[in-house]
Write a structure and sequence with these properties.
Rossmann fold; alpha/beta; Type-B_Carboxylest/Lipase; globular; 16 helices; 14 strands; 504 residues
């Protein structure tokens, strides 16, 4: 397969299913040397002639694996190398189609801002574009990589406020705006969607670039932007410790410290961060790009005018992925004490019946985490956007256990991230699950096309799996395995939602 951009021939491949894929296309210059710890710069086209886009690029360097290790969340064969000199790339997937105005979905992976990769097997775009095309909704799918961890979000007085990972995503979206037409996509119909910290990144992009049309619709899956901004003092301590570990000379200027870290080999830098133990990286207030928490802006309904619709959702048991270690009541109380202010600890324990005999401690932690970190932020964000009356807002809850997931098989849970195999129509799904995945793929593509997941040909409302998905003010879509349904606001876990909202 071959396409042409600015006199450059880009050669991709066609899969056995007929999907045209172009992998590992650079969108930014290598962030090495003086470009390490700096804003990404667009990669000029042409590069080498022709460019063979036939394999995934290496992952952006990270201290943890870019996958969970459980299929389909494993890294594609040959893509588990880490190399900052060739990691700022994107992948394009499309089915053969004569249309030149296809809607475009751009996916931002999760990973807590510290790990992740666009080459994870689950994110293979062939399944999604094929599923949508089989229902008469052809599209283009783009998956992007961005700097994570120390290279993406390290901040200090010497470096400045490091939001490099966010800037990478913006740079990739500009590439899409400029070049997606060559693949048959319509730059005015771009939907940016992400999961977990990828969803938070979508929210950051909405609020950090209000005057730049990077996309026209947005989808936040299990994330919104409830994650807090990084603390400047904490990040300065991390910077100083990294300098010490990498043997930066004592007494040098801030400029010399920066030059030192820019010259340290990638592997040594990763070893330094690993030696420090569990370090949390996330975007930070800089007064230029990040001026406030995105959730604060969205709760006010402050959405850029060019973003015509936003979809926000979460899974039924978001907290199940972290709750397995909490096997005693004492550990549950320790978890509550670490995450909540002292004046409401006893109320939390009473609400979740922590002291009641027979209660599974793991289920309690799963519920607390799911409510506080996902369900409540989703609800408050949707309410704020809906109040603005300028931007359409849709909400969903995903309630389908996957037979390929251990927690789903044993306990019927729908944990964090496990809507993705359905949306991407992963090969781990059975036939019934794939039909649900087709419903989701079609809804996401229609949302990119028009800002309405129900809109079929000529804009007529045909619903999702036979069910009309209302705007948030009129209900939430609940994805079930064979029959979806609409649920009113505050019906699901209403007592818990009202408790948290009263304390906010």
């Amino acid at each position: 397969m071959e396409i042409r951009i600015n006199d450059l021939n880009i050669i991709g491949t066609a899969t056995a299913d007929g999907v045209h894929q172009f992998l590992g296309i650079p969108y930014a210059l290598p962030p090495t040397g003086p470009l390490r710890f700096s804003s990404s710069l667009p990669h000029p086209i042409p590069f080498e002639q022709p460019f063979y886009a036939t394999r995934y690029s290496p992952m952006c360097p990270q201290t943890a694996s870019g996958s969970t290790g459980q299929p389909p969340f494993t890294v594609a064969d040959g893509a588990d190398i880490m190399d900052e000199s060739s990691c700022l790339t994107l992948n394009v997937f499309a089915t053969p189609d004569e249309r030149t105005d296809k809607p475009v979905l751009v996916f931002i992976h999760g990973g807590g801002f510290v790990n992740g990769s666009a080459s994870v097997v689950c994110y293979d775009g062939g399944g999604l574009v094929t599923a949508a095309a089989s229902r008469g909704e052809p599209c283009i799918l783009v998956t992007i990589q961005y700097r994570v961890g120390v290279l993406g979000f390290l901040s200090s007085r010497e470096i400045g406020r490091g939001n490099f990972g966010i800037e990478d995503c913006a740079c990739a979206l500009r590439w899409v705006q400029q070049h997606i037409h060559a693949f048959g996509g319509d730059a005015s119909k771009v939907c940016c969607f992400g999961q977990s910290s990828g969803a938070a990144t979508v929210a950051f992009l909405m609020t950090c670039y209000p005057n730049e049309r990077l996309f026209s619709t947005a989808i936040c899956q299990s994330g919104v932007a409830s994650i807090g901004l990084a603390d400047a003092g904490y990040m300065q301590d991390v910077f100083d410790m990294v300098c010490d570990f990498t043997e930066c000379p004592l007494g040098v200027s801030g400029e010399e410290k920066l030059k030192h870290l820019q010259s340290v080999p990638q592997d040594v830098l990763m070893q330094a961060v690993e030696a420090l133990g569990q370090i949390f990286f996330s975007p930070i207030f800089d007064g230029v790009i990040v001026k406030e928490s995105p959730q604060a802006a969205l709760v006010r309904g402050d959405v850029p005018q060019h973003v015509k619709a936003v979809m926000v959702g979460y899974n039924e048991h978001e907290g199940a992925s972290i709750s397995g270690a909490f096997k005693t009541r004492g550990l549950v109380k320790q978890y509550i004490g670490m995450h909540f202010k002292e004046d409401i600890i006893h109320k939390i324990e009473h609400l979740y019946k922590v002291n009641e005999e027979g209660r599974d401690p793991r289920k309690i932690v799963s519920d607390i985490c799911g409510d506080a970190m996902f369900a409540v932020p989703t609800r408050t964000t949707c309410r704020g956007i809906a109040k603005s009356r300028r931007t359409r807002c849709f909400s969903y809850r995903f309630n389908v256990p996957c037979h390929a997931n251990t927690l789903s098989r044993k306990l019927g849970y729908v944990p964090h991230g496990w809507e993705l195999p359905f949306l991407f129509n992963s090969s781990v799904l059975n036939d019934v699950e794939k039909r649900l995945g087709e419903d989701m793929a079609v809804a996401w593509v229609r949302f990119a096309e028009s800002g309405d997941p129900n809109a079929g040909e000529d804009g007529k409302s045909v619903g999702v799996g036979g069910i009309v998905w209302p705007e948030y003010k009129d209900g939430c879509m609940v994805f079930e395995l064979t029959k979806h349904r609409v649920e009113g606001d505050g019906v699901w876990r209403g007592e818990y939602m009202r408790f948290y909202e009263a304390k906010m």
